[in-house]
From TrEMBL:
It holds the Pfam family OATP. This is Solute carrier organic anion transporter family member. GO terms for cellular component: basolateral plasma membrane. Its main location: membrane. PANTHER family: ORGANIC ANION TRANSPORTER (PTHR11388), SOLUTE CARRIER ORGANIC ANION TRANSPORTER FAMILY MEMBER 1B3 (PTHR11388:SF89). It comes from Hippolais icterina. It is found in: Cell membrane; Membrane. The gene is Slco1c1_2.
Length: 261
């Protein structure tokens, strides 16, 4: 005799919102890097690109901190009397104001996009601009699919692409599931878990990207030097990452599983 609860279609709005956000964010990194590569001095490009990626890493960091703040607020903040709420953020039934972050982030993105409207459509290239006839001919004389085939046929680029996919897959999995793991295994609130992840995981990555750009500029690394540098740092990173397997905690006592009733 149970009545079926009415289904909600709010997920469609979230889906469309994230779709539009992705469309707006996509041009920033590829076009931004190309823009810097075309109009900046060759020796300064690594630093500028490092700054671009470092700022991109600061966004998720502030996002986690904002999520930590929003998680402390009840989901219906502003619509219910705070005194009538009988549960706390430590309660598993607590639902934070997850929607508030979308409003703040959307307003911030809108304000940050306004200065882009005043940028010139084109800039005068410096006299010593990079004139790579191979890449220019590749874009002018062939269509997109042939260009893509030639790019993916470059063994060095394809290897770097596979390496980047593995790195980002592990990092995204870590950032996505580590807060929930901390909540379940260590009894932390959603707010505190997001705060810890935002402060301990993302700032070191941003700092490393910035330092890498400075090192490349100082030693004026070419393609081969940058490849060796990236390979060495990746090996060291994986070696340090293996130390995680030696870090553990005592097994939690669960009646009927690890201890008897």
């Amino acid at each position: 005799d149970c009545e079926k609860e009415p289904s909600s279609y709010m997920w469609i709005y979230i889906l469309l919102g994230n779709l539009l956000r992705g469309i707006g964010e996509t041009p920033i990194t590829p076009l931004g890097i190309s823009y810097l590569d075309d109009f900046a001095k060759e020796e300064n490009v690594p630093v500028y690109v490092a700054c671009l990626h470092t700022i991109a890493m600061m966004g998720p960091m502030f996002g986690f901190l904002l999520g930590s703040l929003c998680a402390k607020l009840y989901v219906d903040v502003g619509f219910v009397d705070p005194g009538s709420i009988t549960i706390t953020p430590q309660d598993s039934r607590w639902v934070g104001a997850w929607w508030l972050g979308f409003l703040i982030g959307g307003a911030t993105n809108f304000l940050a996009a306004i200065p882009f409207c005043f940028l010139p459509k084109s800039l005068k290239k410096p006299e010593k601009a990079n004139k790579d006839k191979t890449s220019r001919g590749l874009l002018e004389n062939t269509d997109f699919y042939n260009s893509l085939k030639k790019v993916l046929g470059n063994r060095m680029y394809f290897t770097f692409l596979c390496c980047s996919l593995l790195q980002f897959s592990s990092f995204i999995g870590f950032v996505t599931y580590k807060p929930k793991y901390m909540e379940q295994q260590y009894g932390q609130s959603t707010s505190k878990s997001n705060f810890l992840i935002g402060m301990t995981s993302l700032p070191p990555v941003g700092l490393g990207i910035f330092l890498g750009g400075l090192i490349m500029k100082k030693y004026k690394m070419g393609m081969i030097g940058a490849t060796k540098f990236s390979f060495t740092m990746s090996i060291l990173s994986y070696a340090v990452g293996l130390l995680h397997f030696f870090v553990g905690c005592d097994t939690s006592m669960v009646a009927g599983m690890t201890v008897s009733y």
